[in-house]
Model the fold of this input.
Amino acid sequence: MERSRKFFLSLPLFFVACTQPQVKQNAERSLAFLDSAGHNYQGNVKNMTYLMKAIENDSTHAEAYRELSIPYLKRGYPHLWFPLMNKAVELDPSWTGSRGYNYLFFYRDYKRALADFRATDSLTPGFTDFPQAMSVRYLKGLCFLGMEQYDSALFHFQEYIDEDVQKFGLEWVDQVVFIYRAIIYNHLKEYDKALQETRLGLFIFDQSADLHYYKAIAHQNMGQLDSARTHSAKALEYFDIGYYHSRPYVEVQEQIYRSDIEALQKQLN
Done:
């Protein structure tokens, strides 16, 4: 009886010992499938099949869930993207910032995006996160811009600028932040400040159609029509060679089009 009892008590340990090598093997297979997925175009049949196999072999593989979600995001299937991306974040909270980026750029869901950026910030105190290679300070600014909370947007944009200037110098700051700060000051009718922002941005990249466009608007509102005409002409010139702010798959916040510049020129002439 005692021997039989010991046998049954040892069964769980036996099954655990047998299961551990299998779990490790499945995890290795999952990584191999993820690697194979990366050798195919994102979203094609092979790519997505390999990602599904990666998840089949290891249901805790956060990166596989995240990678599988992206084609659905780009194709406009939120009901398929959302549960996969959420699962990735649940398994590995370091993907929280990437989900916030998706909320911001693809869905303009500023509140959810901001919540994710704040959450990812709290995971790494004393360190600035860079979801999708963009400063979380800058991304927070975009959220507040979208919610028309301009003071908060300016604050977070300035945080981003100050940090980059301190670490690398003004020339390494993304000139797009000055586009958005100029937009805000034009909204607030603080045209002198809008001009200052465009000057800083043009110091970094003097062929930005956006910066010349918003500089023209500031001059127009200050009654400086000759300067407004000069910069609207430059805006159109640089727009036509592709030097305007845009991103793949989405329309950026406050994106300008050729028709916007032409409409401004009609007002000025």
In short: Residues 13-18 have pLDDT under 50 and may be disordered. The chain has three domains: 16-89, 92-165, 175-269. The radius of gyration is 25 Å.
